């Protein structure tokens, strides 16, 4: 038994080593334009200083070393306290709102800590092929890399809240070819297999950012095929016939809601939403500003007139705002089962696909994800090659899409890692599809993101649905 595991992991370890190096380097690439003063500022309770992100993602891997590397010496008890997040089982931690109240550890010390962990992890991964528990450890390392990719996206959110257009983001040119997208797609109901199953991945793994050719079954391929425990197990859900927007709700659509008095009329809002509107004086999405009666949007590229951004997906709206718009428009938000079927079911083959366009991984022609380098949403209709079998576009990338579903465990859920996903199964709503800040390797059609209904600092948008 031991020899078979060693043979398997000897082919896996180099792939994990390469992935480890790539993911860890990307985090530092994201923060590279920051000035030293930017690393320690916390602008709101819901965000974290960039210094904390680069330390916390290293803290995760130090917990692996502590558990699995014989004789490992903890780098610093102070670092274990400051860079822990919500993991009660790993000891005391600083409260989230206080992460920006300390100047120590310094940025220099945090980077040195990160370099130390990387050096230790590199040697550790190289030696895994000699261990009987190699597969278990590799699974945890893979989870750690997915965890770091989550924090890369959170870094983008937090840097935007901290600096927005003052951040020197390396912005790539936006797509020029735009296809007109309108109307709603009709989707048949019936039983649908909701959630992740390896059997639905097709012959082409979803990784290598679209570079692996169809049918490539090299020994390390399954090492890259990953899903969180909250996406499993796949199970049957019954759907009625429904319709869903072929495109996300645009800034132009949402501006009509604002101009029609949407933020002044309680009829469209959940009670919790109307409370936010009245207490926090919401009048438009986050990062919208009004000057001399004209609405403007501030993003990484600067300050723009809304009329120049009408055909872009609206973003930085809460579930409460999305629900209010949908009711005003005579529609509703889709359930996550409806969203997933519209995104990845093929009526022609009567089966699910890994992505709206098929089983091959994302690339720059199919969706606006982090590697596209846009640092913002793309115009609606910019990725016709990424549309689903029902003609729905931009379901992957640009902005996470709110659903009406509560974030709860699927029937038969079993936790793969205690305190990671299962501790959040209360009071939150599910979002699907990824954003322009989501790494390509990190996204799947079955990915379940989750935030509280009132939150809008993340890149959240939506599309509407209605009963057929």
* Strand segment count: 14
**Whole-number total of structural domains:** 2
Low-confidence spans: 1-14, 203-223
Oligomer designation: single chain
Quick one: CATH class of the largest domain? Alpha Beta
> Strand arrangement, largest sheet?
12-11-10-13
Q: How are helices and strands ordered from N to C? A: HHHHHEEEEHHEEEHHEEEEEEE
CATH architecture descriptor name of the largest domain = Alpha-Beta Complex
Number of helices, counting only DSSP H or I runs of 4 residues or more: 9
Any idea what the CATH superfamily of the largest domain is called?
paralog of FGE (formylglycine-generating enzyme)
Broad shape: globular
Evaluate the radius of gyration.
Answer: 22 Å
* SSE class: alpha+beta
Sheet with the most strands?
4 strands, mixed
Q: Roughly what percent helix?
A: 25-40%
Features:
14 strands, 4-stranded mixed β-sheet, paralog of FGE (formylglycine-generating enzyme), globular, alpha+beta, single chain, 9 helices
Report on this structure.
- With 468 residues, this protein is an alpha+beta fold.
- It has 2 domains: 165 residues; 297 residues, paralog of FGE (formylglycine-generating enzyme), CATH 3.90.1580.10.
- It is built from 9 helices and 14 strands.
- Strands 12-11-10-13 form a 4-stranded mixed beta sheet. Strands 1-4-14 form a 3-stranded antiparallel beta sheet, with helices on one face.
- Helix 2 crosses helix 3.
- The chain is globular.
- The termini are far apart.
- The N terminus is likely disordered.
Quick structural overview:
The protein has helices at 2-31, 50-68, 77-83, 107-126, 134-162, 251-259, 271-280, 319-328, 336-344; strands at residues 184-187, 190-194, 235-239, 242-245, 288-291, 294-299, 302-305, 345-346, 351-352, 400-406, 429-432, 449-451, 460-461, 465-467. The chain is of the alpha+beta class and 468 residues long.
């Amino acid at each position: 038994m031991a020899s078979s595991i060693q043979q398997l992991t000897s082919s896996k370890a180099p792939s994990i080593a390469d992935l480890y190096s790539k993911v860890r380097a990307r985090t530092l690439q994201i923060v590279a334009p920051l000035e030293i003063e930017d690393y320690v500022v916390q602008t709101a309770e819901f965000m974290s200083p960039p210094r904390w992100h680069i330390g916390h993602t290293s803290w995760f891997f130090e917990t692996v070393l502590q558990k699995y590397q014989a004789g490992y010496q903890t780098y610093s008890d102070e670092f274990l306290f400051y860079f822990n997040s919500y993991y009660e089982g790993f000891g005391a931690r600083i409260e989230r709102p206080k992460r920006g109240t300390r100047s120590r550890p310094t940025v220099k010390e945090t980077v040195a800590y990160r370099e130390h962990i990387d050096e230790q992890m590199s040697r550790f991964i190289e030696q895994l092929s000699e261990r009987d528990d190699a597969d278990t450890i590799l699974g945890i390392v893979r989870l750690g890399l997915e965890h770091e990719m989550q924090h890369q996206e959170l870094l983008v959110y937090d840097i935007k809240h901290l600096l927005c257009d003052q951040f020197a983001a390396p912005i790539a040119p936006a797509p020029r070819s735009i296809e007109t997208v309108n109307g709603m797609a009709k989707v048949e109901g019936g039983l649908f297999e909701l959630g992740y199953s390896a059997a639905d991945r097709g012959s082409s793994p979803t990784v290598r950012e679209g570079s692996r050719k169809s049918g490539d079954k090299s020994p390390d391929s399954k090492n890259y095929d990953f899903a969180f425990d909250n996406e499993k197990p796949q199970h049957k859900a019954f759907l009625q016939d429904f319709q869903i927007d072929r495109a996300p709700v645009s800034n132009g659509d949402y501006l009509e809601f604002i101009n029609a008095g949407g933020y002044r009329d309680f009829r469209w809002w959940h009670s919790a939403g109307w409370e936010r509107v009245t207490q926090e004086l919401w009048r438009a999405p986050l990062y919208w500003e009004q000057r001399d009666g004209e609405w403007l949007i501030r993003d990484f590229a600067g300050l723009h007139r809304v009329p120049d951004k009408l055909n872009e997906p609206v973003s930085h709206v809460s579930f409460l705002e999305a629900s209010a718009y949908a009711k005003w428009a005579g529609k509703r938000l889709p359930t996550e089962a409806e969203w997933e079927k519209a995104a990845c079911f093929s009526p022609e083959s009567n089966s699910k696909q890994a992505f709206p366009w098929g089983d091959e991984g994302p690339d720059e022609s199919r969706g606006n994800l982090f590697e596209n380098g846009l640092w913002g949403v793309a115009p609606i209709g910019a990725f016709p090659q990424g549309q689903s079998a029902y003609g729905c576009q931009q379901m992957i990338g640009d902005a996470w899409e709110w659903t009406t579903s509560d974030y709860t465990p699927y029937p038969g859920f079993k936790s793969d890692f205690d305190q990671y996903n299962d501790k959040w199964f209360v009071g939150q709503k599910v979002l699907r599809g990824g954003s322009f800040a989501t790494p390509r390797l990190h996204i799947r059609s079955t990915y379940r993101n989750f935030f509280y209904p009132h939150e809008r600092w993340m890149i959240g948008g939506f599309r509407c649905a209605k009963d057929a």
